[in-house]
Design goal:
This protein is of the alpha+beta class. The protein has one domain. The protein is 23% helix and 21% strand. It is built from two helices and four strands; from the N terminus they run E-E-H-E-E-H. The strands form two sheets. Strands 1-2 form a two-stranded antiparallel ribbon. A two-stranded antiparallel ribbon has the order 3-4.
Length: 77
């Protein structure tokens, strides 16, 4: 979970890929589970997500919370 309470979820694909990692070492994944595994391995999980105005920016996770896929799909709805 990020400071703004947003979470990494399956709806965060941009141009067909999830973008995770710090600026300069970002990686793209087409598979959500692979992107999630990469985030879990990071000291500070960082991913891109759109702002309310639709601009894609980085956000850093500050807390891990287990969420089942059904709940993640609701976040994306």
């Amino acid at each position: 979970m990020a400071p703004d309470k947003s979470v990494f979820h399956p709806g965060l694909k941009k141009d067909g890929a999830y973008v995770v990692g710090e600026t300069g070492s970002e990686r793209e994944f087409t598979d959500f589970d692979e992107a999630l595994r990469a985030l879990q391995a990071m000291l500070v999980p960082t991913w891109r997500r759109p702002t309310e105005k639709g601009r894609w920016t980085q956000v850093r996770g500050i807390d891990w919370r287990r969420v089942d896929r059904e709940e993640l799909c609701e976040v994306n709805a």
